[in-house]
Every structure is written in structure tokens, then in C-alpha cells.
Amino acid sequence: MHRYLAVRPPAGPAGIRLFCFHHAGAGAMSFAGWRRSVGPGVTVLPVRLPGREARLREARITDGDRLVRELTDDLGELLDGPEPYAFYGHSLGAMVAYRFAEHLVRTGHRPPLMVMAGASPAPQLPSAVLDGPGALLPDAPDEDLVKGLGDEDSLPPQLLERPGWLAMTLDTLRADLRLARSLRSAPMVALPCPVAAFAGADDQLVSPAEVAAWEHCTTAGFRLWTLPGAHFFVRGAELPRRVGEALNVESVFAGAPQLPPVAG
Questions:
Q1: What is the pTM of this model?
Q2: What integer pLDDT is reported at residue 260 of this predicted model?
Q3: Which of 8, 144, 208, 216 is deepest in the core (most CB within 10 A)?
């Protein structure tokens, strides 16, 4: 069993294996329902970082290099087989997916079919969430972290009503903010595979222009979608459908200099 996977990968042919990386403070349940929505020919494999959900008792990871090494050790056999695989990461998860892909390429593994990034500034840009005037600081009081998340969709109301759950979530968020800073500390390296990026039209934390800058993170094709919603549009129904579209058109724009962005 793979420690980092929330579901058991199928034993037989899986089509495209889509590894999904969750946002800060969250877990693999961020991708509940994706299997039905992405479409045929894609096996959705949510990745769960330690310190949450079924891995609650494990120490959280705050060092990016350690994380990508552990991911490689745990998932390597699924990545080096004959079947294609792709990554989707949301917010923090986008940086996990990108650095993991970069590590795989650098260490001689087969690169992903595609890396998809949602609600994240490109790695060569400063992150307002981490470094801006209203940055989310790991050592900030709980009320400052809740306020700094920026929009009413950031924390479900039922979580705010349960102080114990909220404290646990904010502790996880603090560790994930340290991890995000670690992942962003290395220089950007362009990937040899296509990149697709997804922005929320009403995102108060990351602008569509910051998401569009992912076009510089690939030497292959790039495509941008702007979707309705705020920072956590990963919870909506449209994103998994668009991810399925991106994978289905991969053969059209792999190796192409760029396709026009897609709005909506």
C-alpha cells in the first residue's frame, strides 16, 4: 500500500493516472467526487500529505526536498511503468506537483504527461499569501489566520463552529505554510512537459495574471483556464471537468509553443 495515496490504485490498466495534490490545511477529501467528473480514461489518485485525515498521527512535513524524496520513494513504481500519468495541484498542491515533477525529471524518471496548477502564482513570482502585506504567517494568532484566508469559502462554517477541529486545521495550515515557503525557495526550472493552469475569476488571494505566468514553466505547450469562483474553486463541479478536457487535448498541444487561453 502506498502511504501517500488516499485510494488503492487499480491493479489493471488505469488509463491516465491523475495524481491530485491538495491545498494548505486540507487533505485528500478535497478531491471527493472527482472520479465521476473528470471523465473516462482517467484514474483519479488523491495524494494525502502526513498530519491530516487518516495520517493525522504522523508528523507534518515542512521541508520541500524531503517531501519530494518521500513521494518518489512511495509512488515511483506507479510513475515509471508504461501507463501515462499527470499531476493536478491546487494552491500549495500546485507547488508540490511542480517540484515533484522537477525532481523526477532531474533524477532520470519519466516526466508526467502534464502538470496542472490551480490557484497558485507561478513559482518564479513572489507569493502575496506568503510574503505580501497581508501575508499568512505560520506564527500568527488563530484569528489572524482565519481573517487572512480572504474569502468566505476558505473555511466551512461547520469548522468555525467546532473550536477543536478549527485548532487542528490551523495547526496543519501553519505547517503547510512553512512547506510552501520551502517549495518556493528554489529557482524555477522549465519542465519538458505541457503545463495547464487554472485561475478563479473571483480569487482574492491569487490573480489570474499570477496564474497565467505558469506559461514560463514549460518548454512544451501551455493553456490557461479562468473558472468561476474564489480561491477554493477546487470544491466546485467545473474544475474536474476542465481537468479532464485538458488531459483529452494533451496530444493537440504537447510540444506546441502555446494555445490561446480559455475563459470560463
A1: 0.89
A2: 43
A3: 208
19, 85 contact by CB (below 8 A): yes
The SS3 assignment for 47 reads strand
Q: Is residue 179 part of a domain?
A: no
Q: Answer whether residue 145 is part of any domain.
A: no
> What's the rounded Cα separation, in Å, for the pair 152 and 25?
16
Residue 165: inside a domain: no
Residue 88: how many CB atoms within 10 A of its CB? 30
Signed CA dihedral, 7, 13, 18, 21: sign only: positive
**Cβ atoms 195, 212 nearer than 8 A:** no
237 phi and psi angles, rounded to 5 deg:
-85, -20
* C-alpha span between 123 and 39 (Å, rounded): 29
What pLDDT is recorded for position 163? 61
φ/ψ bin of 13: left (φ > 0), alpha (ψ from -120 to 50), beta (otherwise): beta
Q: Block means of pLDDT (10 residues each) for the chain, length 264 residues?
A: 93 88 94 93 96 95 98 94 93 98 96 97 91 76 70 55 72 94 97 97 93 97 94 93 85 40 46
Domain count, the chain: 1
Q: Which domain holds residue 27?
A: 16-126+187-263
Question: What's the Rg (C-alpha) of the chain?
Answer: 17
Alpha carbon 188 to chain centroid distance?
16
The backbone torsions φ and ψ at residue 158, rounded to the nearest 5 degrees and listed phi first, read -65, -25
Beta bridge partners of 226: 199, 263
Element (H, E) at 253: helix 250-253
- Say what the pLDDT of residue 69 is: 98
pLDDT of residue 81: 83
Q: What is the CATH number of the domain that holds 76?
A: 3.40.50.1820
Give me 71's grid cell. Answer: 513521494
